[in-house]
Write a structure and sequence with these properties.
- Chain A: This is Tetrathionate reductase subunit B.
- The complex is a heterodimer of chains A (320) and B (232).
- Chain A is α+β, with helices and mostly antiparallel strands.
- Chain A has a domain of 213 residues: Alpha-Beta Plaits.
- Helices cover 29% and strands 15% of the residues of chain A.
- In chain A, strands 11-2-13-12 form a 4-stranded mixed sheet. Chain A has a two-stranded parallel sheet with strand order 1-9.
- In chain A, a hairpin with a 5-residue loop joins strand 6 and strand 7.
- Chain B is built from 6 helices and 9 strands; from the N terminus they run H-E-E-E-E-H-H-E-E-H-H-E-E-H-E.
- In chain B, strand 1 and strand 2 form a beta hairpin.
- The radius of gyration of chain B is 33 Å and the shape is elongated.
- Classes of the chains: A alpha+beta (320), B alpha+beta (232).
Chain lengths: 320, 232
């Protein structure tokens, strides 16, 4: 360390030797130094959200690609990671599958409004099946108590309680209608939600940025935002999960009914249907001409919600 | 001065490298040969092979033709059994068949409702149109039922009896548009179990009972309108 400056500090014996910059506090260098420090501080401040992000999300999750671009090998690793995270954060062994559409199926739902009595068992079944937060009692289904004589959702009331059905009311369960022209998909700025071949509109929870445009765009109020990480006792977590369906979702993303694709793509009936004590719910493949759903569409008085919006729901309401 | 500048730039470079390393660590290596989507449905193998456990005790009957699995309609096990109010000298209670009493008692066709009974079955709630007891119960064989044409039908086949009047519901039931079900929508992958009439409808008082709403989501839209905690 030799000093090339014009006036070295006192003492050839080496004592009292200061750093050259400090020893030469010319105004120019002082200003330069100040701005350099400021710049460095600004840089650190600018990247600090990344440090926090790295604390909350694993690096692998941060770098994860869009679901549609994942190879089988990618999916295997991601699912392994998600299963490990569930084990670490919640202490449960979960099994996450990657259920794909069954070729030749288009799922359709129908509800018999003459029979539905608004008891809310479907709401509860959805809450449990899809690993919703226990404290908020979240569910993908909302049952509206409606005055007779209208199908206008805005007339409905979700806060009814007590003995049902009430004489002058009918009950309208509303969940994702899996529209053929889904406004929620159109507005997503990052394509984190899309419609699959069997008609189910899905969300890649790891690609969603939580802007909530889709929630605003949905005329059926069918989407839900994860305001907080779902808190569920370990023994109540449904371990039978699917990547695009009921796996434990991260906080700050949007979620929605998937027609229980982790069940229906394996041939089983959705959880809300099995829970319905009145038998108001019917589910099936509209492409199968012998299916129950086809008979209902051909023989019953069938309605769809907000038909004038042109969303083309795959969800029907009928009366006896 | 140049030293400070180089120190700073070295620091910046180090931070950048560190970030790249942190981000890259553990990231799955990109496979270039990626197949866009595997349409073939996976996890089919996990479809349950066992029959519906909750219906195994029930007698089973199949309707419809399917490739692999059947739609199983639940059935009553047999004629109803009457719980005896009295106990025997050993203190045991017992259940007896209808025929225990009715085989030795002459049927009184004049009795049309439970109100006119002077012994047994008193106080039975009955609210099923204007039917009389022996419209459905069989006066000649008390452990079976009776169709409108007088022919005998077993308790297990009670749906045949109901369908005489409730044909529209029976048709809807056949097409899955009436009555609850469990199991599989896709019968090539597993069976389906359906309720029968009397699982949901009490034959003596068939209108579906009122229920009490048990579960309500407590999301922010359902908060009491009178309390605004977001702006005070």
């Amino acid at each position: 360390m030799t000093t090339t400056n014009d006036s070295p500090p006192k003492g050839e014996d080496g004592r009292d030797r200061s750093l050259p910059v400090i020893a030469n506090p010319s105004r120019r260098t002082a200003v330069k130094g100040a701005f350099a420090t400021l710049g460095a501080a600004a840089f650190v401040a600018a990247v600090s959200p990344l440090r926090q992000a790295a604390e909350r999300t694993s690096a692998a999750e941060f770098m994860q690609s869009h679901y549609k671009r994942l190879t089988d090998e990618d999916k295997r690793k991601i699912i392994e990671r998600l299963e490990a995270e569930a084990k670490e954060n919640h202490g449960v062994e979960v099994e996450i599958a990657d259920d794909r559409p069954i070729p030749g199926t288009k799922f359709v739902y129908a509800i018999n409004l003459s029979v539905c009595n608004g008891n809310g068992k479907c709401v509860e079944a959805c809450h449990k099946e899809n690993n919703h937060d226990r404290s908020t009692g979240q569910s993908y289904i909302r049952v509206l108590e409606m005055p007779k004589g209208t199908m206008d959702m805005e007339e409905g009331n979700t806060t009814y309680s007590g003995v049902v059905p009430k004489d002058d009311k009918f009950y309208l369960p509303v969940q994702c209608q899996q529209c053929d022209e889904p406004p929620c998909v159109d507005v997503c700025p990052v394509k984190a939600t899309w419609k699959e071949e069997d008609g189910i509109v899905v969300v890649d929870y790891n690609w969603c940025i939580g802007c909530r445009y889709c929630e605003a765009a949905c005329p059926y109020h069918a989407r839900r935002f994860n305001w907080k990480q779902a808190e569920i006792p370990a023994e109540e977590i449904n371990p039978d999960q699917s990547y695009l369906s009921n796996r434990l979702r991260p906080v700050g993303v949007v979620e929605k009914c998937t027609y229980c694709l982790h069940r229906t793509r394996r041939g089983k009936l959705p959880a809300c249907l099995e829970a319905c004590p009145t038998g108001a719910r019917v589910f099936g493949n509209i492409l199968d001409p012998d299916s129950n759903i086809r008979w209902i569409l051909e023989n019953k008085r069938v309605y769809i919600l907000k038909e004038e919006l042109g969303t083309k729901p795959a969800f029907f309401y009928y009366f006896d | 001065m140049t030293r400070i500048a180089s120190l700073l730039s070295a620091g910046v470079v180090c931070t950048a490298v560190l970030m790249v390393v942190v981000c890259w660590d553990g990231a799955p290596p990109r496979d270039k040969s990626h197949s866009e989507r595997d349409v073939a449905a996976q996890s089919i193998s996990s479809a349950p092979s066992g029959g519906p456990a909750h219906a195994s005790a029930e007698a089973q009957r199949t309707v419809g033709e399917t490739a692999h699995h059947a739609v199983v309609v639940r059935q009553p096990e047999g004629p109803p059994l009457i719980e005896l109010a009295e106990t025997d000298p050993q203190g045991r209670t017992g259940k007896v068949a209808c025929s225990t009493c009715h085989s030795v008692r002459k049927p009184n066709l004049a009795n049309r409702t439970s109100a006119s009974l002077d012994e047994f079955h008193q106080g039975l709630t009955f609210n099923h149109g204007t039917l009389a007891c022996y419209a459905c119960h069989n006066p000649d064989q008390s452990d079976a039922l009776r169709l409108a044409d007088g022919s005998l039908v077993e308790y297990r086949d009670v749906m045949t009896l109901c369908s005489q009047c409730h044909a529209a519901q029976a048709t809807a039931f056949r097409h899955g548009a009436h009555g609850g079900m469990n199991g599989h929508w896709d019968l090539s992958r597993g069976p389906q179990t359906k309720n029968n009439c009397i699982d949901c409808h009490d034959p003596h008082e068939p209108s579906y009972p009122k229920m009490i709403v048990g579960f309500k989501p407590r999301d922010r839209f359902l908060k009491d309108e009178t309390t605004h905690d977001d702006h005070e």
